[in-house]
């Protein structure tokens, strides 16, 4: 019996010792990220407005196995590429400091990803994977050599002109709607492109002979190949065949506003190529035939006292869009009144465009009185498109002084961005300008009342005649400080948002053209002088009640 008890005791003793040995073995355990500091500041897992050499300090509840860091902690850029960094371990490897090997890009997004492949020396795993968002701020260093004001203006005009010269459609010479449009050319944007040719000749970017040759090509295509509707052009055309391309489901015919922007350019070209040589004389004759062929009165839709924007051979007047002020379409009524063949009467202008004075505003915004239009003025292209040719200097009627209208509209837009009531990242007195442009998820007519946080360089740069100081400040900022993001093959890219760290890779004809033209009007009034020298325009504007030293 005693033998049995001794054996039992021995077994229990051995089992107990083994159990004790098992319990004392260190088992792997999870650990956690305790804190994150970037440049000495803690704001959770999201950090904005960082410099390009941020210092990221991570603190853990357990020491870290150094050999697991490289595979478990990865710094990514927006292209999902991993970037090299250096590490420093402190406090018995409970803390890791991470610094990028090379400076990050300004105004860019990065993420530091921590996976559960991160281990402790005992094999413990990071309990919860973590991603830390990092966004860099503006790098205030100059991205290009600093130029004088005049040299910078010339560079911007020359580079932007390339959109209409180098990137013009090879068959028609017309302007592609945007840099990804293929055969799609735009009537209004082509009108803008035509107006850049005299600028390029005068600034010696091209010769007069080259400019004339391009205009001969364009006008021959417009005359012989393009589809027209009662003399008016569609919004979009096939640059190779001249066939209308629908802008929308029922917009597959005439677009009178686009036609007027094209005619504005053609009339400028007619006035510029004024030589007595046979080729320049022939060009003027062909432009006159296109100009005289537009049946402006047809677009009164059964003789109503208003002009209509669209007419389709398939849908007639179904779009039913009256052209009424205040917007970009003053040029349409001016040219319709100036037509030598199908002129509208003053009553059409007064009832249609002005709404018998309904477009008057008169309120103040930021202490600046806005004579006409919607509150805050709308997108800035309202102050540009019609006034590429129409000189607002000293231009008045019973409603307003048109230079004051456009200047005040521009200053309201500037002050809105400077004040930045929606706290958009980047808005300032150097970074301003809201107008129609691309946005991160599409296209929008940006203005103080439709603000998406997107700045379009064309807005401030095309306002040079009205706000030369504010526009130059913006130009230097866009070029010197943001140039590595905004400047490209055809000048400034269309738009950007510092909120979303988004920079468009697009160029649009209707945004590039006004930059070249309005900078030149600021510098020399070249396009204003050419357009206002048209005798038909002088007569038409006088008939509408305008007064100006240029009429």
TrEMBL record:
<feature type="domain" description="Glycoamylase-like">
    <location>
        <begin position="320"/>
        <end position="535"/>
    </location>
</feature>
<protein>
    <submittedName>
        <fullName>Beta-glucosidase</fullName>
    </submittedName>
</protein>
<feature type="domain" description="SbsA Ig-like">
    <location>
        <begin position="51"/>
        <end position="131"/>
    </location>
</feature>
<dbReference type="InterPro" id="IPR019282">
    <property type="entry name" value="Glycoamylase-like_cons_dom"/>
</dbReference>
<dbReference type="Pfam" id="PF13205">
    <property type="entry name" value="Big_5"/>
</dbReference>
<dbReference type="Pfam" id="PF10091">
    <property type="entry name" value="Glycoamylase"/>
</dbReference>
<keyword id="KW-0732">Signal</keyword>
<dbReference type="InterPro" id="IPR032812">
    <property type="entry name" value="SbsA_Ig"/>
</dbReference>
